Every structure is written in structure tokens, then in C-alpha cells.
């Protein structure tokens, strides 16, 4: 390995082509963190040159500005090709500099500053006389990844080319527009603008430098890449995994397949959608990091931490000597599976379970779900339904009973292992049997008595808001059967749905206590009823705000006019379970709340059933013990203004 500080002239003036290898991430630099600081340094250097031009005094040792480091490795090429190097690290920096040069050329051309425009152009394209006709793309000094290519070629297009940007939201296009505006503003107009642009190029030529590290053939580019990025600055876990996989593709003798693997399999995973932040437990990571952790959990059949994903992946990959091309394809297959389960679940039951998992952020269930729905396993539909029903009931019952989520990662990994070890025709039943075999309090699947006991308690409202929404959404969807006029599924992961106290928490102004020989007993009954299950329902935010703490006639009128939820219309505006319950007289009081609590409890038992479980047998208790992070639901403010 050779290293040294060089000026940008040394980087761009020769006929040379820098190629960004397939293992690199796409272009992600942005204005505030990268473009502006780089431009500040370049502008300061250019201002220095302008000053020296004005004074006609040239220092023997002009100030130098350091722009960071780049790592390159020479590659053997067809003799017809331009001499070139792989850009192992620093591709974001060099890409940005090329965009800046193109923006400078455009500004110079618009101002008829021909000398400056020509000098900028010389650093953007190699001498045409050195480019072979079989390889016309060699004219570019820098060759980007396929996912950035169209936008980059637009960004470095010649002056006079008025073609539209392929994707204005792409960071490459944004960078070109940002630098063009910044350079034009700095250059100004009039006779001095051309000199200032020439000074800008001179500053880039003589006063800006980078540390260039040139690797030898025997140097391990992957190890050096990881060492340079050990702090994880802007590099996600999935960036590092991609780098490792595509390096291994080359090391395993499949370099010719690298671009097709990138374009046909990995490319969508580099999109902005997959790089969006999501929360996993207490950690915020990009979406691909999280799904890769789910996938690796399935492969290892042990819980994988998103925080340590790359190290665990690297150890698994290298120790197992897996084929990198096959792994890339498998990752894409499972990412697509996750997408399907999220966006287009195969049936209503699965959709409701996914909604519950997303709303309550019970992310440790995902590896189990993905393993059951893996097309390669071909688990029968009825077995998938068994698994979905078991997990849904297990989560809902434990959630309502207020039991800990601390051991869910180990629990669901154990269920997944049992399912994977069984025949596909028994995969869902294996999940059911595993959950049924849990005996420890931290893992127990609550019985009907425990479930109903929690539902009949006086503080159902004390549960987290996501759990309450998931509970009511589940009941609403059960009521929206084939006979319902509107069978559209209600989603728990909908922040517009608020939890409404029908009899408001601030009840004293409009809801007087009933006459009673024991006022204290009546007050205690009222306080127990306020946060009970039967007094709660879902409303949208606008309806919630309109009702607030109004009296019953006002609330009843508002609900009758606007509410479409069956949990409201069939058990608040009408007698709850009218065919089996009696004694409701249309008023909303402690008696009506009690009747509705019982009706909703019976409906919940039917919605989330549990098999009969014999006490005492702990033979199926899982033994995983290393990763017990608690699930983290959103800490929400109560949106209802009751």
C-alpha cells in the first residue's frame, strides 16, 4: 500500500478512469453535511487566489486545503481500455468534485469565460484521441454505479445540452443544481466573473489536496475499507454487508456477474425507500438494515441484533463459506417477501397480524412470519393460518394482560426453529405447539380466565395506546364480516384513530352521578367505569375534538351522524349484543358500560382463541438466553381531548 497527499491536478489531469465498484453504496451526500463544508473550503481557497491576483503577489507556499482521502486499486484491463483504477473508498467525494467541475464549466460557458470552461472540461473528460471506439464510455474520468449513472451523466453533460434531469429528486441531480447556483452566486457577473472562475480552477488545481492511498494487488481492499469506515460514519450496516458481498463475488471468481447481480437483484435495495429510517426496539436504523437482521436471524436460527448486524453477518458468511451470489439473490427474495407481507398480505388474517406487529412495533415476530411465508418452503395455506392465529392470539392476550415483551426475541426464534425443523405440512402446527408449551410467567400464553380478567378490570385505558388501537381494530375487523355493508379492514397502525372515552374523564360538568343512598359508592363506581373497556371506542381526530366532554345527547348525536365503526354503532348506539344481553335502556351509564365490557370480552375470546393447555409440562420451554431486549412501543401522548 502506498499513501501520500496529492493535489486535485494529480487526480484529474491525466487520462485515467476511476470506476466505482459494485460493492459501493450509491451517491448519498447532501447539502448541509457534505456539499456546503466542501464548498466553504474550496471557496476560501478561491478567494485566496483572487486576492493574490489582485495584489499580483504569489506565495511560494500557498495555503493548502485538505478534502479527505481516497483509496484506489489499479485493475488489469483490455489493452483497448483506458488506464484505470477501482475507487475503493472516497467515491462520494470524487463524485461530488466531478459534479462541482461540471457546474463550474456550465457557469463559465454561460458567462463566455472560455478559458475557465476549457480547464474545467479537461478534468471531466479524457482526451478523445485516447478513447478507443469500442469503449466510448472511457471518455469519462469517473464511471458511477448503475443506479447513479443516468443522473451522473446528466450532471456532467456538456454546456448546451438541455435534456431534462432523469430524476430531479436524485441526490446527484440536486448536487448539480446546488453547486451551479453556489458557483454562479460566487462568480458574480460582469468583466470580473471570468477571472474569478479562472481563480476557482486555479484553487482546485494548486490549493486543494487529498490523501491518495494506492493498494497493491495483495492488499485486502475489504479490510482496508472497513478500517477506514470503522466509526460507521454515514455507512449503514447494510452498506457494509453489500460491500462484503460484492467483494466476495469477485474473490469467488464471479466478477463478470457483479453488474448483473447489482442491477437484477440488489439495485432496488439501494433505493430511498429501503434507506428510510425505521425503529427496531430502541434503535433507529434504515429499513434494509432491519430486514437483513430478520433474514440473518432465519439463517442462523438465533436472534440477531441490528446494532451488531454486520459483524454477525460477516462471521456467518465467512465461517460458512457461502456463495456470495446466492446470498445476494436470497436477500432480495426475502426483502420482496417482507414487502409483500407489508403491502399486500395474502389474506385478511395475515393482514391483521402484520398490522398488529407494525402498530405495536413487535418486530421480533418478523423472522418467524417470514420463515412461514417463504415461498421456497411451500407451507400449506391452512398451516400458515394456524401460525398466524397462534401468534396473533399470543401477542394480543399477553398485551392485554400487561405481560412483558422482554423475551419475545427468544420465544419467536424458538417457534421458528420448531417450524423450520418440521415438515412444511406441519409448520404452523409446530408454531402453535411451541407457544402452547411455554410455562414461565415471562412466556406464558394467558388462559381465557386471565384474558377475561384483564378485560373486565377497571383500567383497560392504562394499556399503551398502540395496544388499545390494535385490540379495537381487531374486534372491528371481526364484526366486518361478509354480511357487513362495509367490509374494509380497519388498520391499527393509523394515528388518525383516537381512543375516545364515551363517558368523559372530565365528567362532572355534564354527567352528574345518579341519585344514590351511598354517594361515595356511586362515585367509586363512576371512577371504575371511566377507564374500563366498555367505555372506550375509536374515533377519528376531528370527531373526537368535536365531542370532547359534551353530554350524552350531544355525543350520541355526533356518533350517530359520523361514526361508521361497528364497535360503536352496534354496542354504544344500540344495545351491546342485543340478542344475548338485556337491560340496556339507551342511556350511557355504569350499567351500559358494564354490559358493553362483557360483550366486548366475549367477542375478544372468539377473535383471539387459545387452545386448551395442560398445566405443568415445561418440556417445550425454549432455552435461548443471549438476546433479551424488550420490544419498544411508541411512547404516545394521548391524542384524545376528552
UniProtKB/TrEMBL annotation:
Residues covered by the GmrSD restriction endonucleases N-terminal domain: 8-246
Residue ranges of every copy of the GmrSD restriction endonucleases C-terminal domain listed in the record: 445-600
Region feature (Disordered): 610-642
Extent of Acidic residues compositional bias: 614-642
Pfam families: GmrSD_C, GmrSD_N
Protein name per UniProt: DUF262 domain-containing protein
Organism: Nocardioides eburneiflavus
Amino acid at each position: 500500500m502506498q499513501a501520500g497527499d496529492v493535489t486535485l491536478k494529480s487526480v484529474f489531469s491525466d487520462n485515467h478512469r476511476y470506476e466505482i465498484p459494485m460493492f459501493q453504496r450509491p451517491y448519498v451526500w447532501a447539502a448541509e453535511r457534505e456539499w456546503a463544508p466542501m464548498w466553504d473550503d474550496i471557496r476560501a481557497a478561491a478567494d485566496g487566489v483572487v486576492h493574490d491576483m489582485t495584489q499580483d503577489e504569489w506565495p511560494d507556499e500557498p495555503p493548502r486545503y485538505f478534502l479527505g482521502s481516497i483509496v484506489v486499486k489499479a485493475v488489469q484491463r483490455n489493452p483497448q481500455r483506458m488506464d484505470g483504477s477501482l475507487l475503493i473508498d472516497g467515491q462520494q467525494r470524487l463524485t461530488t468534485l466531478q459534479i462541482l467541475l461540471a457546474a463550474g464549466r456550465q457557469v463559465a460557458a454561460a458567462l463566455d469565460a472560455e478559458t475557465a470552461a476549457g480547464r474545467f472540461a479537461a478534468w471531466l473528460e479524457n482526451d478523445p484521441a485516447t478513447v478507443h471506439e469500442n469503449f466510448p464510455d472511457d471518455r469519462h474520468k469517473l464511471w458511477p454505479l448503475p443506479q447513479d449513472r443516468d443522473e451522473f451523466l446528466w450532471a456532467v453533460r456538456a454546456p448546451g445540452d438541455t435534456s431534462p434531469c432523469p430524476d430531479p429528486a436524485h441526490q446527484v441531480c440536486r448536487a448539480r443544481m446546488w453547486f451551479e447556483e453556489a458557483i454562479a452566486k460566487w462568480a458574480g457577473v460582469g468583466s470580473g466573473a471570468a477571472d474569478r472562475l479562472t481563480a476557482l480552477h486555479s484553487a482546485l488545481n494548486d490549493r486543494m489536496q487529498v490523501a491518495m492511498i494506492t493498494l497493491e494487488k495483495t492488499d485486502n481492499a475489504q479490510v482496508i475499507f472497513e478500517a477506514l469506515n470503522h466509526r460507521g460514519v454515514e455507512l449503514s450496516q447494510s452498506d457494509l454487508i453489500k460491500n462484503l458481498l460484492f467483494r466476495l463475488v469477485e474473490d469467488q471468481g464471479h466478477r463478470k456477474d457483479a453488474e448483473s447481480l447489482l442491477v437484477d437483484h440488489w439495485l432496488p435495495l439501494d433505493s430511498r425507500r429501503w434507506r428510510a429510517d425505521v425503529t427496531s426496539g430502541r434503535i433507529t436504523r434504515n429499513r434494509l438494515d432491519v430486514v437483513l437482521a430478520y433474514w440473518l436471524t432465519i439463517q442462523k436460527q438465533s436472534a440477531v441484533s441490528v446494532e451488531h448486524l454486520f459483524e454477525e453477518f460477516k462471521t456467518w458468511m465467512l465461517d460458512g463459506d457461502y456463495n456470495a451470489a446466492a446470498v445476494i439473490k436470497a436477500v432480495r427474495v426475502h426483502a420482496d417477501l417482507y414487502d409483500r407481507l407489508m403491502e399486500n398480505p395474502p389474506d385478511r388474517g395475515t393482514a391483521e397480524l402484520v398490522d398488529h406487529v407494525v402498530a405495536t412495533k413487535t418486530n421480533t415476530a418478523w423472522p418467524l412470519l417470514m420463515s412461514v411465508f417463504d415461498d421456497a418452503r411451500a407451507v400449506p395455506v391452512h398451516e400458515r393460518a394456524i401460525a398466524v392465529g397462534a401468534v396473533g392470539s399470543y401477542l394480543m392476550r399477553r398485551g392485554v394482560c400487561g405481560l412483558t415483551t422482554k423475551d419475545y426475541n427468544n420465544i419467536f426464534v424458538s417457534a421458528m426453529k420448531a417450524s423450520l425443523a418440521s415438515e412444511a405440512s406441519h409448520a404452523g402446527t409446530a408454531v402453535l405447539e411451541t407457544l402452547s408449551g411455554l410455562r414461565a410467567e415471562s412466556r406464558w400464553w394467558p388462559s381465557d380466565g386471565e384474558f377475561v380478567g384483564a378485560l373486565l378490570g377497571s383500567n383497560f385505558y392504562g394499556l399503551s395506546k398502540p395496544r388499545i388501537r390494535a385490540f379495537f381494530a381487531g374486534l372491528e375487523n371481526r364484526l366486518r364480516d361478509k354480511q357487513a355493508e362495509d367490509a374494509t379492514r380497519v388498520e391499527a397502525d393509523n394515528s388518525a384513530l383516537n381512543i375516545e372515552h364515551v363517558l368523559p374523564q372530565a365528567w362532572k360538568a355534564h354527567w352528574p352521578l345518579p341519585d344514590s343512598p351511598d354517594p361515595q359508592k356511586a362515585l367509586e363506581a363512576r371512577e371504575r367505569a371511566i377507564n374500563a373497556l366498555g367505555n372506550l371506542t375509536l374515533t377519528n381526530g376531528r370527531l373526537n375534538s368535536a365531542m370532547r366532554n359534551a353530554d350524552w345527547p350531544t355525543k350520541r348525536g355526533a356518533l350517530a351522524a359520523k361514526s361508521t365503526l361497528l364497535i360503536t354503532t352496534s354496542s354504544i348506539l344500540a344495545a351491546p349484543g342485543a340478542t344475548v344481553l338485556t337491560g340496556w335502556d339507551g342511556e350511557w351509564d355504569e350499567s351500559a358500560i358494564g354490559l358493553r365490557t362483557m360483550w366486548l370480552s366475549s367477542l375478544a375470546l372468539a377473535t383471539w382463541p387459545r387452545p386448551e393447555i395442560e398445566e405443568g409440562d415445561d418440556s417445550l420451554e425454549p432455552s435461548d438466553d443471549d438476546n433479551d431486549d424488550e420490544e419498544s412501543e411508541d411512547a404516545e401522548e394521548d391524542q384524545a381531548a376528552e
